[in-house]
Amino acid sequence: MGESSEIIFDKLVYSCAFEKHRGDEEFIPEHFLGFQLSGETHAFYAGGNTIISENKIVLVRRNQLIRTVKYPGKSGKYQFLSISLDSETLRQYALEFKITVGSSNNKQKLFFEPDEFLNAYFLSLSPYINKTKEATPKLANLKIREAIELILQSNPDLKNILFDFSDPYKIDLEEFMSQNYMFNVSVEAFAKLTGRSISGFKRDFAKVFNTTPKQWLKEKRLDEAMYRIKQKREKPADFYLDLGFENLSHFYFTFKQKFGLTTTEV
């Protein structure tokens, strides 16, 4: 049985699995607060990797790429609950309480805030998961605002993350792509994350790499695959997904097309 995700109300998502499940690459457009009810989530991103263990709470900031592997716990079940802190609600909250922000650490990705109030907050959502109580739009909005209030109580400095509504600044394209080429996401996502329009991204990309994003990504991934096979003696089945290839047969085809050799002939 694979993973199932259920939208309890507009911004609340409950994920459940009974076996190891590898998630797709995800572009995170909004901040979200998550709670690991059971099992573990292994999260991989450009800055490294993190293990979200049982009963841990995580705040993930918007506009980044993440890949996950989900492991059931001792009970044989994986459960993760996440609530999206959308920009519209955050803007209204900041306006209502006249919140001003300072500079934030743009390189910091994941924040862990073990806190008895936040734990109690997520436990209070269980009736909605179990369908013993219906979440009306008004109540759903109150629960999101409650999450914001608890985050700020836990760490007031997180206001500089939550209420930073600026668009991603135009970052160094070569450095960013070298750190994120393995994520199998759209050109639109890469453009947004580097602070560019799609046309601007393609134009700047051609200046830096003298080729198209699609072609460069394929070549970069295949070169890394050759290194892993030849130098690290790894098997393609163990890494093709990590390099952004959708399936093994497509990987074998493109590898042979580029190098004129099969992986066993390297």
How would you sum up this structure, described in words?
The protein is built from eleven helices and eleven strands. It has a six-stranded antiparallel sheet with strand order 1-2-10-5-8-11. Strands 3, 4, 6, 7 and 9 form a five-stranded antiparallel sheet that branches. The two termini are 37 Å apart. It has two domains: 4-162, Sandwich (Jelly Rolls); 173-265, Orthogonal Bundle (Arc Repressor Mutant, subunit A). Helix content is 39%, strand content 22%. The protein has 266 residues and is an alpha+beta fold. A hairpin with a 2-residue loop joins strand 6 (40-45) and strand 7 (48-52). The mean pLDDT is 90. The protein is globular.
Q: Give the percentage of residues in beta strands.
A: 15-25%
Mean pLDDT: 90
Tell me the span between the first and last alpha carbons. Answer: 37 Å
Rg from alpha-carbon coordinates: 21 Å
Proportion in helices: 25-40%
- Helix/strand/pairing class, anyone? alpha+beta
Level-2 CATH architecture of the largest domain: Sandwich
As residue ranges, the low-confidence spans are none
Spatial sequence of strands, sheet with the most strands: 1-2-10-5-8-11
Kindly report the CATH topology of the largest domain. Answer: Jelly Rolls
N-to-C series of helices and strands: EEEEEEEEEEHEHHHHHHHHHH
Give the count of helical stretches. Answer: 11
Number of domains: 2
Strand tally: 11
- CATH structural class of the largest domain: Mainly Beta
Shape: globular
Tell me the major beta sheet: 6 strands, antiparallel
Domain HTH araC/xylS-type: 171-266
InterPro entries: AraC_XylS_family_regulators, ExsA-like_N, HTH_AraC
GO molecular function: DNA-binding transcription factor activity; sequence-specific DNA binding
Organism: Chitinophaga ginsengisegetis
